[in-house]
Amino acid sequence: MRIGRERHPNRIRRRHWKRLAEDLEISPRPILQELKRLTSVIEKKSAVFADNFRKNYGDSETIDVLQKIIHQRRTWAWAVLGDRPD
């Protein structure tokens, strides 16, 4: 999926989110606010999911890999937002 015409998650910057807003003909503010909201909760929610999965099914390399990807992309999102995780 492209964000502001960029398809590589590690290359997405603030300008891409703003370009997405332009393409949608809306203000970038709600997009950036939603990115911040999602970034704030996703790692916590995924950790709860991963713990529940492990309790029910045991350890999973796939879950571990997904957790690493989520952490990495959350870090990228905070860099774009110019903010710090809570």
Describe the structure.
This protein has one domain. Helix content is 72%, strand content 0%. It contains three helices and no strands. The protein has helices at residues 14-24, 28-57, 61-81. Helix 2 (28-57) runs antiparallel to helix 3. The mean pLDDT is 91.
Tags for this model:
86 residues, single chain, mainly alpha
SS class: mainly alpha
Helicity, as a percent range: over 70%
Strand element count = 0
Main sheet attributes: strand count, strand direction, barrel closure: none
Q: What do the pLDDT scores average to?
A: 91
Which series of helices and strands comes N to C? HHH
Strand content: under 5%
* Ends distance: 27 Å
Given as residue ranges, the uncertain stretches (5+ residues, pLDDT < 50) are none
Shape estimate: elongated
Number of domains: 1
Count up the helices. 3
The gyration radius over C-alpha positions equals: 15 Å
